[in-house]
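Dear colleagues,

As part of the handover before I leave the project, I'm documenting each prediction I ran so the next person doesn't have to rerun anything. This entry is a single chain, and its sequence is reproduced below.
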Amino acid sequence: MRLSRKTDYALRVLMTLVDRWGQGPISMNELAKKNEVPKKFLEHIMLDLKSQGWVESSPGRMGGYVLAQPPERITLGQVVRHFDGILAPVGCVSQSQPEACSQSATCRFRRVLLDVRNATAAYLDGATLAKVARNQPVDPREVVTLGLIDGDGI
């Protein structure tokens, strides 16, 4: 799974709003600057977030955006599905947009990809904005560390 730029930007903005939860609105300009998102692109993202009921806006000089729901009620799974559609690594294991595969009756790696989809969905659906906000940033050394799940490396 690879997140689109739109999803990445949406998550950045949502995390900024989580950090400001209860402190009042933040302007579009400030959101764009703080999250390094082109303002025109962010305008479309904010409309999407608003249509989902995740953010609210208020007009005027002191207006801006706030979360419309508590951060415990919005999950990464919801956001990723909204902007990117499916979580499945390949179409033949997609629940929402399944694609036929001529090899499905004999494919031996499809099970692994189904497990990846299920694990990814479960993890993202359990990752509320509130939980994610408590995380520390990733150390660059963590990214290159290979963490094997079992002795077979699967």
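The chain is about 45% helix and 5% strand. The two ends are 17 Å apart (CA to CA).

All the best with the project,
I.
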